[in-house]
Write the structure tokens for this entry.
Amino acid sequence: NNFLENLNSKPNNHTNSQGSRGGGIYAHNPTISNVIISNNSADLGGGIFCGCTNTIDSVLIENNTSLNDGHAIYAQNYLTLTNATIVENGNEINEGNAIHIHGVNSFTNLSNVIIANNQSGTIECWYPIDLNFTNSILWNNNNDAYNTNLCEENFESIYQVDPFFCESENGDYSLAENSPAVGTGENGSNI
């Protein structure tokens, strides 16, 4: 397993080589915690490209782009994403979604996640997977719809409200006191 903790990955550009992956982080079987991934680009997975069994917790993924899929995250197979803020990813030129899940019969669990202000859609699944998405906020994405036609979905407590960041224009994505994300996450935690 790869363990990445307390890391700030920015800016990297890996779009010059054909099929480049993971502008900020490229890893298989990673455990990623307390990481900021910003201002990166790649052909697949502008912020993170991860394969196999992936655990990502307490991350900020902002302002990343992909030429193809997964502006913020491109995950193969199993993904557990908790306590994440995914904002300002994508651009007006390239299609794709903030999160792209590519794995046959895999399992994805997203909990206490804010996906906001992305210039792309939110989640896309390529193959049949089990997708559990709970206690999260989707807000002001170019397309708040998710392309999950191939997913067995369990969406619970998904809010489409402004998360009220303190000063997002200055890169401060902490939650304001009046944010609807305060105390509405799992077990009363913040989303």
